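Module 6 notes. Inverse folding takes a fixed backbone as the condition and produces residue identities as the prediction. Think of it as a translation problem where the source language is geometry and the target language is the twenty amino acids. Below is one complete input and output pair. Work through it position by position during the lab.
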């Protein structure tokens, strides 16, 4: 069963400045990087990055769905609903969600309310489940 997860909303662009992405979406990112930024590996970014991140969140007694981080991210991004199509053509928006299972199966439930909220945003979700080795 999924025990914890992490979620991010990213907008990658070749030309559009992350500050402009914030203006269009009316959202505040947790991190931005400009094209040309050099990482620890010495590799230079070839695009701009705008990111809203939710740190790892564990299940609670009230929520055993394994989607707590994803739910918190979608709730935090709700103000951007209807605005993603307004991003310039060089922008690509995605939700990245990863979850950790305590077994060799990675079952999770996406409640209908969460699915509807994701649909309102109009952004694809890319998901990965990390399984416990038996």
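Target side of the pair, the amino acids:
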């Amino acid at each position: 069963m999924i025990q914890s997860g992490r979620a991010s909303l990213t907008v990658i662009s070749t030309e559009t400045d992350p500050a402009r992405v914030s203006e269009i979406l009316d959202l505040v990112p947790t991190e931005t990087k400009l094209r040309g930024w050099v990482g620890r590996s010495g590799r230079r970014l070839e695009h701009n990055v705008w990111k809203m991140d939710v740190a790892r969140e564990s299940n609670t007694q009230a929520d055993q769905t394994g989607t707590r981080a994803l739910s918190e991210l979608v709730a935090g991004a709700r103000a951007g609903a209807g605005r993603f199509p307004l991003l310039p053509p060089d922008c690509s928006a995605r939700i990245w969600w990863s979850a950790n299972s305590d077994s060799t199966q990675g079952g999770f439930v996406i409640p209908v309310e969460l699915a509807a909220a994701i649909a309102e945003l109009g952004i694809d979700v890319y998901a990965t489940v990390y399984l416990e080795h038996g």
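Reference fact for the lab report: The first strand starts at residue 2 and ends at 13.
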